[in-house]
Amino acid sequence: MTHTPPHSYPGRLIVVEGIDGSGKSTQLDLLSDYLQSKGFGVLKSAWNSSPDISPIIRKAKKKQVLTPYAFSLLHAADFSFRYTYEILPAMEAGMIVLSDRYIYTAIARDCARGLPRPWLLSNFNFAIVPDLTFLFRVDPETSYQRITRTRSIKFYEAGLDMELSTDPRESYILFQSRVLAEYDNLRETHGFHVVDATLSLEKTQTRMRRLLSPIIRSLG
């Protein structure tokens, strides 16, 4: 992958990745509370949350009119906005940025939709390399069960646009299996720290804090 070299910003960038239902968002919230209790300035940045692009994505998803390329480009625009106006300013200010998904989400999902990897990589060449990336790994069946306890599976989340199956559950498992395989490819080349998403909250948080310790010390 042709990222820019490791960054020279005074802040630090911590990323959590994984398929839906892996528990990464909960762990990131706990990590944020921990870091703030230690006196660090923290910015949490979430996928698909820019004020200008996110509403457009939501409307298009509701109408189910997004092609794989349109899906990819809109999410890239959303990321670019957050990267420019949220992530980089916080990094320049010396804050710790906790990103709930980063460019790896786009690459994994869009590759799973059949888009060419070189094209996707070229779209994100501007993005700095995170200081630490966690990959929360859970099998798609477990992920599906967790999600459907509180809500129904969404159209694009299930990959129903790929016509892998007309059954939402089967389509979800098939599509998210593809996404997980792409994450595993990225893990091998980017040195993600794999987190067993079936472990308890306490064990997972302890491991995350331990891996984060050198980064905290580097901020002095």
From TrEMBL:
Swiss-Prot/TrEMBL catalytic activity: dTMP + ATP = dTDP + ADP
Family affiliation: Belongs to the thymidylate kinase family.
Amino-acid positions noted as binding ATP in the UniProt annotation, renumbered to this chain: G18, I19, D20, G21, S22, G23, K24, S25
EC number: 2.7.4.9
Domain Thymidylate kinase-like: 16-206
GO cellular component, one term: cytoplasm
Lineage of origin: Bacteria, Pseudomonadati, Nitrospirota, Nitrospiria, Nitrospirales
InterPro entries for this protein: P-loop_NTPase, Thymidylate_kin-like_dom, Thymidylate_kinase
Top EC category: transferase
GO biological process, one term: dUDP biosynthetic process
PANTHER family documented for this protein: THYMIDYLATE KINASE (PTHR10344)
Superkingdom of origin: Bacteria
Protein name: Thymidylate kinase
Molecular function via GO: ATP binding; dTMP kinase activity
Pfam families according to UniProt: Thymidylate_kin (PF02223)
Keywords for this protein: ATP-binding, Kinase, Nucleotide biosynthesis, Nucleotide-binding, Transferase
Function: Phosphorylation of dTMP to form dTDP in both de novo and salvage pathways of dTTP synthesis.
